[in-house]
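quick one before i forget lol
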Amino acid sequence: MKLSFYNPRRLVSMAVVLVVCGALLGTRIEKAFSLDNAFEQIQKYSDVLNLVSKYYVDKVDINSLNEAAIVGLLNKLDPHSVYMPPRNVKQSDEEFSGKFEGIGVQFVMNHDSILIEQVLPEGPSEKVGLLPGDKIVEINNKTTKGFTEDSVRNNLRGPKGTKVNISVARSGSAGLLSFDITRDVIPLVSVTSHFMVDNKTAYIALTRFIATSHEEMVKALVDLRGQGMQRLVLDLRNNPGGYLEQAVEIADEFLGGTKTIVYTKGRVSSFDEVNVSHPGQSYEKLPLVVLVSNGSASASEIFSGSMQDLDRAPIVGENTFGKGLVQRQFQLSDGSAIRLTISRYYTASGRSIQRPYDGAKYVKGIQNEDDEDNFGHLNDVSDNDSSRPKFKTSGGRMIYGGGGITPDFIVKSDTVTRSTINLFAASIFYDYTRDLVSDHGAELHKNYTPDSFVKDYTISDEMLNKIIDKGIAKINSKHDSVTANGVKIAATKPKFDEKEIAADRAFIKNWIRADLGRQIFGANVSARIRIETDKQFQKAFMLVSEAQKMAELFK
């Protein structure tokens, strides 16, 4: 067989060698293992790929096979070493850099409509007068019918200084409203809400650790101190982590002296780091309580672990995720990238909180959540605890590694009944709030301020009954019957128990108010409403209000 100038084996082999060697040489990892063996395995892989490309019964896409092989390789390592195709790298970089370029709106696909959920403060869309509830009908004179979320996003985003025209339908306005919007840099925030709960207690929600997180935290703290902040509840629930150095910088704001916050150890010594606090920070003595959940991971655990290890602040909530691995992103020649685990991190006491894993899959972890509101329970070794390595805080309290951060006060998250879950799953309340904002958003924005909405806007029993009854009727109509071979058969219907729904009425009312507040006034209003019935927050609030007593406990 005579080959053309395109030689798949030669080109694929060269590409694989360049990709692998680029990662190895660029990070000096080649010292850790034999290059001879590495090249031998590369040749083996190249031979297999060449045979498949030449002789496999069906035509194959070599690029997709190559990507699948890389994914398979990384899956043998750990759950967080991953391959990122070129199309995902840019989006990931934007998420962690803390900014993108666009018009500054959050939207949702609501049935066949593109509904603007939120207009970001100080963004291009707010400046031209777009409002929550506006429905995007045209973009640059092209109908949006049939658009997907990706196509909407791709049309609205673009380089700073470029223009886009959108036409929207607005309740109470005849015809379409046309807006010429000049795109600008839109910051992605990690501090999604901060406000004073009372005249002394402040609340901050930090949802991830991106390049701007420390800057955002300091800005929020300065603002809150100006409003009289004397104590703080920091909410890290469901914060998946991000940049380690941002967690260190934020932790440093609350720690006095020179204390180890976190250190990392890897197989390559150049990746080892020790991060310590610096004296003289502004919030070293600010009474602090930290909220965590099962979704708090990585950098969130670095922060909460340092506060716990150094007896700086009580931790409230549920056992954290348990991610104690550190990744670094390496760019590949075709624009793709890999995130490779390069080290493990250890908290101040020397503990690793990494959950057990087997390749890309986590095995069942240790949650230690049987007892609720049990400060000091870590001193009582249970059957589960006995398998976990033991450590002590700077004050001598027993803590455990190997399975996330176990809170000092375990308070499980709120739960709802199966009937209420069925209503949420059918998007009953979600559809109601969006339809209400679409029809009356401008009116609500005019008639309420953020403060008056939190204090005065209510969901009456009559209103809630109508929402629920309409929702159940809608669900039942979809499940009344289905046809199979021309014969009507009964469909399985979700079950709704009046007693279950009655037990959740307060939760449902709070959710509806909070979601309306978010769409009309933003995340601060939503958070202020949600904490009214949040038992984890209520526990944290009680503790931070007794700052002196907590200080005695941690001596």
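fyi Residues 113 and 542 are 44 Å apart (CA to CA).
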